[in-house]
Amino acid sequence: MRPVTTNIALLSLVVSVSCSQNGSSPGETTGALSPSGATPTASTTTDVPPAAPVPPDPGTGVSPPSTPPTTPGATTEPAASASNSNADPDAGPTQPPCIPPEPVVVPCTDDLNTDEPQTPCSQWVEWGTYDESWMLERHVCDRSCGRCSEDMIVQPANTCEQTDSTGQPPTPPVMTNGPKLPPIEGGEAGFTTRYWDCCKPHCGWPGNSGRPINSCDQGNNNMGGNHDAPSACQGGPAHMCWNFVPITNGDNIAYAFAAHNNVPCGTCFQLDFTGESKNPKPETGHDLGSQSLRGKSMIVQVINTGGIEPGQFDLLVPGGGVGEFDACTNQWGGADLGEVYGGFFLACQKQHEFAYEPSRQCARDWCEQVFSDKPDLLKGCSWFVEWFALADNPTMHYKQVDCPPELTQVSGL
User: Fold this and answer.
1) In this predicted structure, what is the pLDDT of residue 307?
2) What's the rounded Cα separation, in Å, for the pair 406 and 399?
3) Active-site annotation holds for 197
């Protein structure tokens, strides 16, 4: 359990107002905050190895739903004066500046998460999710999480609309080439988050799977049948192999591995994305990345478990956040991993005040910088930026399906 501390930087983000002539406005996961932004719950993937003599594995840190904090501040740029004698007469009307609204005052309370009213504030604190954007936006457990004192907390009422460089609201990237999977019938509602902690997964232990998946050593060399080797999470040699990254079949179909609870190792599910997010942005009620996934599908195979919600699939994505357990810092040579929950992607959103395209470009660059000599991981990291469009805990409907060879040939399950 991480100690509960008042995050001054976060508080400053919450009380700031974002607006600019070009409309930068606040904007998962997850990864990575992987309950909000990811939303709803903090996810810590726990690998529990079989009874002795196999040593217990502390587990794999699954990113809690990852998402950006609520309203980071943006620098307001003055609009060009319409009376400027040097103005281009063909440039069209100028865009008026965005005027920050007055802040509002709300009570400092311990309101529960309406999606999980049975979960007390003490549990969210223990899970370490008190700094996740979905909790900030909904004011879940403000008092217990140390975000306010006494009776009141100040929150901005931001109404500035996010726009792109043309002055128009940005639109989600759309890619529609390639085959499509038939939509599932029925199914259950769920959402995805992201993580990659480099640890040996739950299904790598003989006691958890009749055909345990292989692990790799620190240099990504396959360890073959050495399935009793301790996880890198506990100082052992067994890491997640790098070929467990997402892959695609055109613009509409992708395959990946995930953490999900209460199913046998190797179970596969089809996910049909709705175009909405578990953590919609308060300014628009939507998330651009999630909108771009509308009509797309994934098939995922479960190889891990964790402290995650029903209906949550924590996708294995390099750079998606290490969560509570981190073997990546050592394996990747001390690389900057970004946010613990949310990884490179949330870190880029924070750096660029959640402006969509600048955040995507930052994530592209970060993937290239960390994984330039690790092509498998670079491919998986770039997949999240391009195919997945930096979607923040997108919602979907899911249903169990037969596992395709694209996944079984990698996992052996």
Assistant:
1) 82
2) 18
3) yes
